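Hey there, shall we discuss this one?
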Amino acid sequence: MNFLRPLLLCVAVLLMLPGALPAHADSCPTLPAVSTPPGLPAVSTPPTLPAAPSGCGGAAPVSPGSQDYTTAGTYSFTVPAYNTLTVTLWGGGAAGGGDNAAGGNGSASSFNGTVIANGGTGAGSSPSAGGAGGSASGGSTNTTGGDGGAGAQQNDNIGPPSVATGAGGNSPNGGTGGASTNLPPASSQAGSSPGGGGAGSGRVTLAGSPPHQFYITSTAGGGGAGGYSTITYSAGSLTPGASIAVIVGAGGTPAGTAPGGTGAAGKVAISWN
């Protein structure tokens, strides 16, 4: 058996060499090294984007709206954010003439002191011509108001003749003038808003002495209508947030023992989108 000793020793040495035996089943495998991921492609410069729309970090958002001023007086209008803003004005209508006194003039309406619709001119006492319509300026469209109709006079020795009063002038795209009526009986009609002129009044008198008396019916003219102006502003023409003076013209006041019709107030209408 001694001849086996050297053989057994060689086998023992071989078993002790690294890698001579397979790894135990419970041994954890060696994980491969994690490689560096490939590089991402270079990020290109983004194209120039269009301007931000309203409300997206750009200009203030636009909310369409409108504002009407219909009572005579002075106001302050704050300019909103807008794309286009349209202003339309009517001046005040004048009063019709009375039996023994002239009707009052209408006054001007204005926007920012540059767009102006003037008031109409009151008619004189009976008998009289009609008052002139108001002019306008500063707008893209400016139209003079309608003139009042004329009064008249007639005589009759039997009884008071029927004579028409002067009608009030019509305001362009606005109010109508007071209607003409026959005198007697007296019935002075006011102008309608915005800017219509009032109708005239009149009187009946008995002239002469018996037995040669006669009646005289005389009527006054109607008041002139207010002028008309309109303008549209593009974005940037007016500064949002700015205060703009707005004036609404008053209608003319009648006068006399038998006064004519009252003139209608003017108007300022503003709309935007």
User: Anything to note?
Assistant: Residues 63-273 form one domain. Residues 6-29 have pLDDT under 50 and may be disordered.
